[in-house]
Please model this.
Amino acid sequence: MADTKKGRDKKAHDAENRQRKRELEQERDRADEAEPPQNEANEVYREGNASGDSSQECRRRGCNELAAFLVLERYQEETGHGAVEAEAALCEEHTAEESPTNLDGVYADYVFQVTPLLETRQTRHN
Model:
């Protein structure tokens, strides 16, 4: 078969169609997947704890204690293309074990912050 413009165009068109078909199949496969769960508790605290929900449990696996602190670490993404915020509501014991873990991603706006969840502490002491 001779190499002609028409033949090259057909090959390119066929390759594009195969790529579209693969992408469509991948989208269909992903459509069956469940959405990742939203961490509603962290969203509530980010909004200033407007709902007053103070019965949130510690985020650590297997811990059923009430969360007493919100731990936040903001660091530079490994690729250097933006900041990442890791946030978790933890009980007193697990908060005491926390320390900065992404010091290799430190930049001008780096944050490691532990904030008490006042409603939780007040509820516990009443």
In short: The first strand starts at residue 69 and ends at 76. Residues 5-31 form the longest helix (27 residues).
